Amino acid sequence: MPTATPDLDLAPWVWWASIGVAAAVLLFDVVMIARRPHRPSTKEVSVALAVYVGAAVVFGLGMWAFAGGQLAGEYFAGWLTEYSLSVDNLFIFLLIMAKFAVPEKLQQFALMVGIVIAIVLRGIFIAVGAAAIDNFSWVFYIFGAFLIYTAVKLAKEGESDDDEFEENRFMKFMEKRFPATKEYDGTKLFSKETGKHLATPLFFVILALGTTDLLFALDSIPAIYGLTREPYIVLVANLFALMGLRQLYFLIGGLLKKLIYLSIGLAVLLAFIGVKLLLHALHTNELPFLNGGKNFDVPEIPIAVSLGAIVVILGVTTVASLWRTRRHPELVD
Fold this sequence. Notes:
Layout: H1 12-35, H2 42-67, H3 69-99, H4 104-135, H5 139-157, H6 169-177, E1 190-193, E2 196-199, H7 201-225, H8 231-243, H9 245-251, H10 253-256, H11 262-283, H12 303-327
Antiparallel strand pairs: 1-2
């Protein structure tokens, strides 16, 4: 049986310092983009993305040095998983931008504010997930079953992604609740016309981006809790994944269409983590109607195997997609 995972006992100031640094970076980005809205150049997004990815890797190496290889492996596995699932979000983001006909110079600002909303909402999900795990160990059965169900659903969808964004009920409610103008007014979310304050289309774009990511969090948060039980690692992995998402949107917008097997690859990834969660649930079983409330003698998947599987799944998905689209360019069109 694998050795027990060491606890990450952190002082409160570490949490607040991490959240404070992330908030400062995000606030700086929002203010700077709002002052000069523009479509970023390839060089600009490449440098920024390299900084975010480099910071994520350095953080993982620092965790390896100070907290050990087990927790560092959990962090890297969680970060890669969240990043790969976030890439799937980008396709929906492209559809949202197209539906609302967002001017190119405003897309970066909309993404930035939408990502901030997504981070706040995911933070709430992370806290709820941590509380559920601490008090109800059987929640791993639910997480595992849900991920496997999602994987099957995603695999059936395959390459047949919708080519239009469908608004959720919350969006439809907000559009009825707030009188709106059809014209964009720079980065303003509300503008005044004929003495009335009206919501601009940008207001609804940001709501759509933030709430859509929340739906994706229903998959990603249980998935990362299948790799680590440390809420701090879950939080930091999500921060690094989302903070670099804006740059990724502009950098791989065209490449994204070539990842035709992305849905299948993510389905395999979610199924793998779902099985890992179910094995863990059986190993720590406390349900009285299963084996008399006793643990099942089943193996657990070590984090090293999980990390390797994640890298292989994502690598094969990317290579296979690019190889297929190179031989059959019509698939991209």
